[in-house]
Specification:
single chain, 378 residues, alpha/beta, Rossmann fold, Dihydrodipicolinate Reductase, domain 2, six-stranded parallel sheet, 16 strands, 27% strand, Gfo/Idh/MocA_domain, oxidoreductase, D-xylose 1-dehydrogenase (NADP(+), D-xylono-1,5-lactone-forming), EC 1.1.1.179, D-xylose 1-dehydrogenase (NADP+) activity
Length: 378
């Protein structure tokens, strides 16, 4: 039986290369993973075009990050959308520009993989998906965490294998220290209109970990979830967000936090607790897990029917997930397979799930007092 060749997709990369953003950082990470030679690749990826704010900056991006690729370089995003040889547009601009970038690409009939968060609020996400539905093109939010094999195996272990019994609680925190007052005024991290704050950059991952840990079928019963949240602001920018999630049907709780006031734990990214044990997820930061450890239930030594105050945890079993690059290729592969299959939505991150997470963040901002100018747009 002949082996089927993996599909080939041609990418158009939209790069932000101005003073508001580190020069194409997220786009550079994405394309560096695309050009890795992998024996397990589900698709063949071609960097067909790069669009930047100028030809000079675009050429510099290609020279630094695109390996042996020889893409067309354009000094305007619109030229990428007009390129007939581009199949899928990857959008790596700051949050505030995602909506218009997506709409412009959709209008030209291009499939889109757009960095998270897809938009600044749930209303704008609905507008993007409505446009994609009307035009009949594929659009997906690039929540790369959900595409990782580690996440798939972790959820199987929790919900199919029941390795830690019945889940009842989960925690996740994401912290990156930023000296907000001393950043240049041009930095997007100081401008709420550009999505400044910890929530959209970091908190979205903490929320995603809670959803993955606490919901057997993510998004199947959105009315089941309630949220109580608080936020702290510094120099007009949200710097810390915390939320308690509760599921009425199961009583499960999630504690999710994010901050730009201090760096988070560099190893323990999330903890899931069940009636028969717990799981801790490890890695450099919550968007990039590399392993998880399954621990048996905590015990202590009984003395006359009472614990002696010394809590003992048995030795855990660690599961490692080494891979090439940073891990963006997992979402690139899945996007390519979806695209060539003629789908409009991601098989991993559905439109409804993107909207739901945006609604959770909208509610947290509403309770915490963070408003963006986009919330007021008609």
């Amino acid at each position: 039986m002949a082996t089927r060749e993996p599909p080939t997709v041609r990418w158009g990369i939209i790069v932000c290369t101005d003073a508001m953003e580190a020069t194409g950082r997220i786009s550079s990470w994405f394309v560096e993973d695309l050009v890795i030679n992998r024996s397990d690749a589900k698709a063949s990826h071609i960097i067909q075009a790069v669009g930047s704010s100028s030809l000079e900056k675009g050429n510099d991006f290609v020279a630094r990050y695109c390996g042996k690729s020889n893409p067309s370089v354009y000094g305007a995003y619109s030229q990428v959308y007009d390129d007939p040889d581009v199949d899928i547009v990857y959008i790596g601009t700051p949050h505030a520009f995602h909506k218009q970038n997506c709409l412009d690409a959709i209008a030209k009939g291009k499939a889109v993989l757009c960095e998270k968060p897809l938009t600044m609020n749930a209303r704008d996400a609905r507008e993007v998906f409505d446009a994609a539905r009307e035009r009949g093109v594929y659009v997906a939010e690039a929540m790369w965490l959900r595409h990782r094999p580690l996440v798939h195996d972790l959820r199987k272990l929790i919900y199919k294998d029941k390795r830690i019994g019945e889940v009842f609680r989960a925690f996740s925190d994401f912290g990156v220290e930023m000296d907000i007052p001393n950043l240049p005024e041009t930095s997007r991290y100081k401008q709420p209109s550009l999505g400044a704050g910890s929530l959209l950059d970091l908190g979205i991952y903490s929320i995603t970990w809670a959803i993955l840990a606490l919901e057997e079928e993510p998004g199947s019963n959105p009315d089941d979830l309630t949220l109580n949240g608080v936020q702290t602001h510094w120099h007009g920018v949200e710097v810390t967000s915390s939320a308690l999630l509760r599921y009425a049907s199961t009583g499960r709780q999630g504690i999710v936090t994010s901050t730009t006031m201090t760096n988070g734990n560099p190893d323990m990214l999330a903890r899931v607790q069940g009636t028969h044990g717990s799981i801790e997820v490890h890695g450099p930061f919550p968007a990039r897990p590399t392993s998880f450890t399954v621990f048996p239930k905590f015990t202590d030594t009984l003395v006359d029917g009472l614990g002696d105050g010394v809590v003992v945890r048995g030795e855990g079993i660690k599961f490692d997930y080494p891979h090439a690059g940073r891990g963006f290729h997992f979402e690139a592969d899945n996007t390519a397979v979806d695209y060539v299959s003629g789908k409009l939505e991601s098989s991993i991150v559905s439109w409804s799930e993107t909207i739901r997470v945006m609604e959770i963040m909208d509610e947290l901002r509403s309770q915490g007092g963070t408003k963006y100018s986009q919330d007021l747009d008609a």
